[in-house]
Design brief:
Layout: H1 2-14, E1 19-24, E2 27-31, H2 33-38, H3 52-55, H4 58-72, E3 80-86, E4 92-104, E5 107-117, H5 137-147, H6 152-159, H7 163-177, H8 182-195
Antiparallel strand pairs: 1-2, 1-5, 3-4, 4-5
């Protein structure tokens, strides 16, 4: 019975539309075909024995390794964030990630489910939904930078503003857009772009 469940569970993960990666230590224990495609690999075979260092963008590696150590040590770590990965052709892919972990037989397995965040760089950036009232230029800039995967602290440094001011612009923009948070913004833009012909 356990073998039957294992085969079927693996089939469900293999067929998932979102990328799924399970790590043991800093090594990939499982990766589904969708994750491989997001990184521009033709199959999972080249990634089966990869480490997180092989996948993660160098500028985000320290942060992700820290989160992994926290989980293995039983300390709190974020369950949702963005990070950049390196594709097979060295292109940068930005992911919206949801993370969970389980301790099995004294070992921690970390599961990451990802969706690609499409770039919103450039002057032609437009929000995909009508607003109750138009966003100010600063609110639009904050939203654009959030969609590139930047955190409030990074945006504050880029724009020469305080993190509190960025939070205010972000809150006002989300209120005008009818969104609860960054995750809703990512989903909204990603779903809208997937629906475009």
């Amino acid at each position: 019975m356990a073998d039957f469940i294992d085969r079927h569970f693996r089939a469900v993960l293999d067929g998932a539309p979102d990328g799924v990666l399970v790590e043991r230590g800093d090594r990939v224990a499982y990766i589904n075909p969708a994750y491989a495609r997001l990184l521009h690999y033709p199959s999972t075979s080249e990634l089966c024995s990869a480490s997180i260092r092989d996948i993660c963008h160098p500028e985000d590696l320290e942060r992700l390794m820290w989160f992994g150590r926290c989980r293995r040590e039983g300390r709190a770590a974020p369950t949702r964030y963005t990070f950049r990965a390196r594709g097979r052709d060295q292109t940068i892919v930005t992911f919206d990630a949801t993370i969970s972990h389980a301790r099995i037989g004294g070992e921690v397995l970390i599961t990451t489910i990802v969706r690609e965040l499409l770039s919103c760089d450039g002057p032609s950036f437009e929000l995909p939904v009508p607003c109750v009232s138009p966003l100010s230029p600063r609110e639009s800039e904050v939203v654009r930078q959030l969609l590139t995967g930047k955190r409030s602290k990074e945006i504050a440094l880029d724009l020469g503003l305080s993190e509190k001011t960025i939070g205010t612009h972000r809150s006002r923009a989300f209120q005008k857009l009818g969104l609860r948070g960054v995750a809703d913004l990512f989903r909204l833009v990603s779903d809208r772009r997937r629906a475009e012909p």
